[in-house]
């Protein structure tokens, strides 16, 4: 149980020390995120209200959250939501937790989406393996004139994506469709984007407990070499991509050459790329190769 005088400051210190002893990275940040999220507090509240006593209900809520974190459940899974590109996204068992690295692909695609809207009056986006809807919804929120379809095999993920569209006032521009990649889709799109499963099957079991126990395997396992999804998408993408459109992917840190090769075999050329905050290749953008 929580130690100290029952104050917010004591709860924060207790959580930090317990996380530190358990070997959790950045225990001070984790404690602030968890307690702030559970109690609806911002950073200033920890400074100005540190001596405030927690109610019995608040103390129980904090203790339950701390125990769940010590059992390797990620903070945002405990909270049930996380921020992404200025949006608030709910999470569920069938969705990958969006990471800050995935915001890179949104930043990279915003200029493309704006340019297409300016040139044609609109931009239709397809997000394959949409999960929470994070990428598509962030693009819709950032670029007026866009509309989007989020496709996923998981009904749980699709329900979560629809809920997130409602939560962020984007439902009138977003549609969630159950589809195995392009199988159930019709029409064409200006931007096709995917953060597909890209971890090699043998590597999945070596991931941290936070990932392998709480992120769905469907969203992690990319086959023997981690590239199965890229092959599947590249093989059909041309039929769904408009002539001025782009095809974009998030990739694993060591997959740039492999993905470029797969796309080249299917008639696509790299037109932009971006690295994440750690300096790793993270986002690739392609256009169809124009032949005379």
Helix/strand order: HHHHHEEHEHEHEEHHHEHEE
Number of domains: 2
For the largest beta-sheet, the strand count, sense and barrel status come to:
7 strands, mixed
Highest CATH level, the class of the largest domain: Alpha Beta
**Total count of strands:** 9
Annotated CATH homologous superfamily of the largest domain: Vaccinia Virus protein VP39
CATH names the topology of the largest domain as Rossmann fold
Termini, distance in Å?
A: 72 Å
CATH architecture of the largest domain: 3-Layer(aba) Sandwich
Structural class: alpha/beta
Low-confidence stretches: none
CA-atom Rg in angstroms: 21 Å
Query: Count the helices. How many?
Result: 12
Whole-number average pLDDT? Answer: 95
Helix content: 40-55%
Shape call: elongated
As a percent range, the share of strand residues is 15-25%
Q: Which strand order does the major sheet show?
A: 5-4-3-6-7-9-8
Structural notes for this entry:
This protein folds into 2 domains: 8-71; 82-288, 3-Layer(aba) Sandwich (Rossmann fold). The mean pLDDT is 95. It has a 7-stranded mixed sheet, with helices on both faces. The chain has a two-stranded antiparallel sheet with strand order 1-2. The protein has 12 helices and 9 strands. With 292 residues, it is α/β, with parallel strands linked by helices. Helix 2 packs across helix 4 (56-70). Helix 8 (155-167) links the parallel strand 4 (146-152) and strand 5. The radius of gyration is 21 Å and the shape is elongated.
């Amino acid at each position: 149980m929580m130690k100290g005088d029952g104050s917010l400051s004591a709860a924060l210190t207790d959580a930090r020390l317990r996380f530190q002893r358990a070997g959790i990275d950045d225990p001070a940040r984790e404690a602030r995120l968890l307690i702030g999220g559970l109690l609806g507090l911002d950073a200033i509240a920890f400074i100005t209200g540190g001596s405030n006593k927690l109610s019995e209900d608040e103390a129980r809520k904090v203790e339950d959250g701390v125990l769940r974190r010590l059992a390797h459940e990620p903070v945002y899974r405990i909270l049930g939501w996380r921020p992404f590109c200025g949006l608030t996204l709910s999470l569920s068992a069938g969705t990958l937790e969006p990471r800050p690295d995935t915001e890179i692909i949104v930043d990279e695609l915003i200029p493309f989406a704006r340019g297409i809207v300016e040139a044609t009056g609109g931009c239709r986006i397809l997000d394959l393996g949409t999960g929470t809807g994070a990428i598509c919804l962030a693009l819709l929120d950032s670029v007026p004139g866009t509309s989007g379809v989020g496709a996923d095999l998981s009904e749980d993920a699709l329900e979560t994506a629809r809920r997130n569209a409602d939560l962020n006032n984007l439902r009138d521009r977003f549609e969630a469709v159950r589809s195995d990649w392009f199988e159930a889709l019709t029409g064409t799109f200006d931007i096709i984007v995917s953060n597909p499963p890209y971890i090699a099957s043998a590597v999945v079991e070596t991931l941290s407990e936070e990932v392998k126990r709480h992120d769905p395997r469907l969203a992690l396992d990319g086959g023997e070499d981690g590239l199965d999804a890229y092959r599947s998408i590249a093989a059909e993408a041309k039929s769904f991509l408009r002539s001025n459109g782009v095809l974009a992917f998030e990739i694993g840190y060591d997959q740039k050459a492999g993905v470029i090769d797969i796309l080249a075999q299917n008639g696509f050329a790299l037109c932009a790329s971006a690295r994440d905050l750690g300096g790793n290749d993270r986002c690739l953008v392609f256009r169809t190769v124009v032949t005379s």
